């Protein structure tokens, strides 16, 4: 591969590349031979037509096109791996378009257009403010989590029918929830198992069950907390109709050093170690939930605070076409006319309006991507290998696949590393240590 010409513009770089004369000549000869071997002419056996006759009957345009097509991948690979391109920090290899510039028996020239990197500016991120509270973990949560860890070794003894529910009992019951006398979505269950006093349900729910007996039915009233995770229920009053099916007393194993060591948790040998382990994991879990909830606002802030000296044309075009194709495919999957899909599903009146929508989406995506990458570079954000390892272990258990096999899958590793980088970027910007 030889680079014949390089033109560096303000927004785009243009390269003309070609194979050597010998490689191009051999590629054409190979395609000619293939065409000749498949040629059928009256009076001749297939594959036995004299070359001077066959060469006049084959499609020379097809030979040239196929020759160029077969060489193009290796030419582009050589181009990307050339020192001139590998060491060029001013171009975007993620946004490249290529087309044949010259195609004839003497030469193949490919024209390559590459976006230059725009100048990226981000508003002073140290002054960004977000409405959030650093999570805390209380003793009740720690005790509840420890109970969950050792519950598999607990012994449940069914109580006699006349015995009432007490704190610490395990109760099986049916329930159905209502808000404004309308059934609560996903608010119904049969033989649900709940340890009374665990705090698993809304505040006041479990305490109203104390004193009930097997076979009792009761309607209890509760209020969803204002910060409930599903905002449509936040602060609303609800009632639940209960029917008690079974009451059992629970006896948990003694939490001594011997039992704790058998739990086989790394660096956990006594109760203090276990409390520390549980607290750290609860904090980590709450942090991840907090960060995931704030990610949309944080990422929007990155996009809004990022400005580019110009919008890279090839990158923009690539994303625009992909996004439009996605909308078209969605219409096809639903067997709906595209214009009807736009009006009914997207609430868009015309193709022009769709193009405007995609334009805004793509420009926002590109600005965010550049802003994110600049922050990652400026702040020296790295993936957390512990995060990657933990998630590999979890995936292994979930899908029953060997850990080493998963580690060989670059798509999984890359995904987890990017998730880890985004998490660490968010923690840095939110000033979470």
Describe this structure in words.
- It is a single chain.
- With 433 residues, the chain is of the alpha+beta class.
- The chain has 13 helices and 11 strands.
- Strands 6, 7, 8, 9 and 10 form a 5-stranded antiparallel sheet that branches.
- Strand 3 and strand 4 form a beta hairpin.
- The model has no long low-confidence stretch (mean pLDDT 89).
Oligomer: single chain
Helix content: 40-55%
Largest sheet: 5 strands, antiparallel
SS-derived structural category: alpha+beta
Elements, N to C (H/E): EEHHHHEEEHEEEEEHHEHHHHHH
Query: Which band does the percent of strand residues land in?
Result: 15-25%
Total number of helical segments?
13
| Total count of strands | 11
Q: On the 0-100 scale, what is the average pLDDT? A: 89
Shape: elongated
As residue ranges, the low-confidence spans are none
**End-to-end separation:** 51 Å
- The radius of gyration is 33 Å
List the helices and strands and how they pair.
Elements: E1 2-8, E2 12-18, H1 21-37, H2 51-54, H3 60-81, H4 83-86, E3 91-103, E4 108-116, E5 120-122, H5 139-150, E6 155-158, E7 170-179, E8 182-195, E9 217-223, E10 237-251, H6 257-262, H7 271-305, E11 306-308, H8 313-333, H9 338-344, H10 351-378, H11 385-399, H12 403-407, H13 410-429
Antiparallel strand pairs: 1-2, 2-4, 3-4, 5-11, 6-10, 7-8, 7-10, 9-10
């Amino acid at each position: 591969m030889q680079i014949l010409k390089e033109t560096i513009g303000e927004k785009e770089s243009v390269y003309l590349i070609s194979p050597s004369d010998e490689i191009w000549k051999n590629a054409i000869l190979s395609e000619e031979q293939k065409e000749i071997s498949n040629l059928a002419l009256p009076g001749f056996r297939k594959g036995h037509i004299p070359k001077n006759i066959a060469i006049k009957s084959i499609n020379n345009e097809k030979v040239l096109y196929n020759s160029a097509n077969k060489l193009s991948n290796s030419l582009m690979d050589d181009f990307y791996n050339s020192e001139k391109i590998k060491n060029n920090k001013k171009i975007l290899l993620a946004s490249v378009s290529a087309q044949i510039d010259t195609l004839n028996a003497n030469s193949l020239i490919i024209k390559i257009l590459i976006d230059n990197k725009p100048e990226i500016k981000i508003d002073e991120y140290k002054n960004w403010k977000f409405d959030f509270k650093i999570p805390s973990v209380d003793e009740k949560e720690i005790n509840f989590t420890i109970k969950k860890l050792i519950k598999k070794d607990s012994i449940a003894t069914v109580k006699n029918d006349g015995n009432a529910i007490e704190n610490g009992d395990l109760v099986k019951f049916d329930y159905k929830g209502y808000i404004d006398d309308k059934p609560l979505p996903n608010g119904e269950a049969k033989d649900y198992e709940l340890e009374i006093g665990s705090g698993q349900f809304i505040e006041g729910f479990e305490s109203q069950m104390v004193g009930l007996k097997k076979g009792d039915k009761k309607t209890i009233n509760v209020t969803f907390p204002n910060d409930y995770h599903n905002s449509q229920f936040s602060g609303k009053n609800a009632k639940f109709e209960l029917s008690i099916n079974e009451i059992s007393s629970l006896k948990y194993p003694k939490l001594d050093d011997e039992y704790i060591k058998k739990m086989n948790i790394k660096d956990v040998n006594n109760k203090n170690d276990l409390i520390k382990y549980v607290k750290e994991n609860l904090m980590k879990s709450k942090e991840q939930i907090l960060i995931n909830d704030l990610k949309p606002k944080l990422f929007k802030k990155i996009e809004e605070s990022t400005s580019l000296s110009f919008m890279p044309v090839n990158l923009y075009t690539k994303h625009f076409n992909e996004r439009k194709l996605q909308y078209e495919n969605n219409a096809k999957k639903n067997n709906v006319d595209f214009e009807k899909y736009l009006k009914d599903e997207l609430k868009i009146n015309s193709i022009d309006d769709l193009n405007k929508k995609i334009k805004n989406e793509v420009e926002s995506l590109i600005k965010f991507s550049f802003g994110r990458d600049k922050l990652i570079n400026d702040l020296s954000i790295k993936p957390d290998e512990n995060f990657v390892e933990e998630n590999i272990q979890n995936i292994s258990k979930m899908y029953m696949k060997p850990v080493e096999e998963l580690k060989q899958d670059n798509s999984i590793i890359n995904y987890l590393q990017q998730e880890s980088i985004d998490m660490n970027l968010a923690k840095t910007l939110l000033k979470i240590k």
